[in-house]
Amino acid sequence: MLVVRMLRPIVGGMVRTLACRSCTAILPPVLPVRVLSSSPVQTPTDAHFHSASSSETGPPRVLITGGLGQLGMGLANLLRNRFGKDNVILSDIKKPPSHVFCSGPFVYADVLDRQNLREIVVNNRVTWLLHYSALLSAAGEANVSLARAVNITGLHNVLDIAAEHNLRLFVPSTIGAFGPTSPRNRTPDLSVQRPRTIYGVSKVHAELMGEYYCHRYGLDFRCLRYPGVISADSQPGGGTTDYAVQIFHDAVKRGKFECNLRPSTRLPMMYVDDCLRATLEVMEAPAESFSMRTYNVTAMSFTPDELAQEIAKHVPEFRITYCVDPVRQAIADSWPVSLDDSMARKDWGWKHDFDLPELVTTMLSLHGCDTRIAQAN
Ligand SMILES: NC(=O)C1=CN([C@@H]2O[C@H](COP(=O)(O)OP(=O)(O)OC[C@H]3O[C@@H](n4cnc5c(N)ncnc54)[C@H](O)[C@@H]3O)[C@@H](O)[C@H]2O)C=CC1
Ligand SMILES: CC(=O)[C@H](N)C(=O)O
Fold first, then answer.
1. Does the Cβ of 241 fall within 6 Å of ligand 2?
2. Is the CB of 139 within 6 Å of ligand 2?
3. Residue 36 has what DSSP assignment?
4. Which residues contact 261 (CB under 8 A, 6 or more apart)?
5. Residues labelled catalytic
6. Candidates 1.10.260.40, 3.40.50.12780, 3.40.50.720, 3.90.380.10; correct CATH number of 4-55+134-240+262-301+325-365?
7. Are 180 and 191 in contact (CB under 8 A)?
8. For residue range 37-82, what is the model confidence (pLDDT) as tens digits?
9. How many Cα atoms occupy the beta-carbon half-sphere of 285 within 13 Å?
10. Closest Cα to atom 42, ligand 1: which residue?
11. An example of a Gene Ontology BP annotation on this entry (predicted)?
């Protein structure tokens, strides 16, 4: 006998769609039924996808993968403040420092181990998954096969588990998802995407797969293309924009910095607080507000030379020199110089707080530099 089950909950006699406004307008509607017999249209993966249950109440139960990198711990702090310490589980394959271990739940999770990941989701009744594990642009070029595994196979595991267990899934994308044939100024959300790094290719794949699962299975997939993110309390993990983090440390501790990009290399950037707030906001936004599932977000664009000049306003003795890394330079030259994030601003109210002057004073003071005294010099 052919058994059919609704893929999505029925609200008021209508199939409730989790897809966004534009998706449903452009694409044919997703089939509202899933075949559970041995019909030839069934795939093994399809059979594991549960019908969506939107009956969860109370705060979300959050899992962050790859949480011990530059961004994950800050994200955990933000989400713990909002949803309670025990509702946010940080995970990684690295051993956490003791202050992280003591600040809330931490588990070992290798995104390549699907069974382990599934157990964590089930045993902890996870409802939101923020998938931060990745090899970044420069690290990916240094180890393509590992980047392919972590960024693509890892994503497949996460997507399947999120669809099986009806999770809300956030996957960060990047300016690296664009390439040399994309428009470079005010790059729009929808434009040519032919990146030339394994990192970029894997992120375009993540965007497309997430959107496909959203249309096909009703997965509540949400994605932001972050620019380079600048933070003070954690080290960057092998990216092309890392210089803009390291420069503050070296300016304060050494009064000088050697930059691995050319002085005129302009890239989109954002302070970490804006980045993490954007992530929380897009996760909390009602699905109905989305006209798409992958949004550009940005705050500012600057060059190493402009950043150094802004730092020198506060640290007058600061000197920058240049020793260009050809791999990172080629990557940076293929990325946008600025992003158009007007759709995020229009659809769910995205607004950045930090421009270059605020970024510099904040970063310097977090590194222990008294910018008021330096300004007086
Ligand atoms: N930091 C930035 O400027 C930007 C970051 N993003 C994205 O945000 C996310 C987080 O970025 P960061 O924290 O900067 O990255 P990161 O490189 O600092 O951290 C990535 C983490 O993934 C973990 N990881 C590696 N292999 C793993 C595996 N098999 N299983 C589980 N975890 C594994 C690493 O141990 C590391 O802690 C990434 O997806 C990245 O692509 C996007 C654009 C800009
Ligand atoms: C912009 C990014 O995605 C990251 N910081 C990198 O430089 O690889």
1. yes
2. no
3. -
4. 240, 243, 304, 322, 324, 325, 328, 329, 332
5. 199
6. 3.40.50.720
7. no
8. 333 333 445 656 654 444 468 999 999 999 999 999 999 999 999 9
9. 27
10. 174
11. L-threonine catabolic process
